[in-house]
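Marked as duplicate of an earlier ticket. Keeping the data here for the record.
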Amino acid sequence: MPPANAQRGFTLVEMLVVMTIMVLAYAVTAPMISAGVSGAELKAAARQVAAGLRKARSEAVAHKNEVALTVDVEGRQFDLSGDKRVYRMPEKIEISLFTAQSELTGAKTGAIRFFPDGSSTGGRVTLSLGERKYLVDVDWMTGRVKILD
C-alpha cells in the first residue's frame, strides 16, 4: 500500500517523453498529409482540364461547328471558344501544352480544336506539381480525352 501522503500523477520526465513522441510523430506525418493534399489538388486540376476538353468536343458535335479549348500556359488558365468563362489553375501547378503548330497562337498560348465529326487537332496538356504529373491526352482521330499519370 502506498504511503498516505503520496501524490498520484505524472513526473516531469514522463511528460517530456510523451511530448517528444508526439513531436516526432507530427514531424513524420505532416509532410505525408500535405503531399496528399497537393496530389489531390493536381488530380482535380487534371480532371477540370479533361472536362473542359470533353465539353469542347461535345459542343462541336452537337452544334456542328469547330470549338477550341485555348490554354494560356503563363496565365495558368484555359477557356472554350464561345464561352465567356475562364478556368484558372492553382498557382502551384505548372502547365505545358503540346498541340499542332497551326494551333499555337503565341509563345505561351495554344489551342486544341475539335471538329463537328468529333475529331480534333490532337494534343496534350501536362499538369505538374513537384515530382507528380498528369497528362491529359487528346487523340486527333477520335477526339477521345484520357488522363494519364
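See parent ticket for discussion. The first strand starts at residue 67 and ends at 72.
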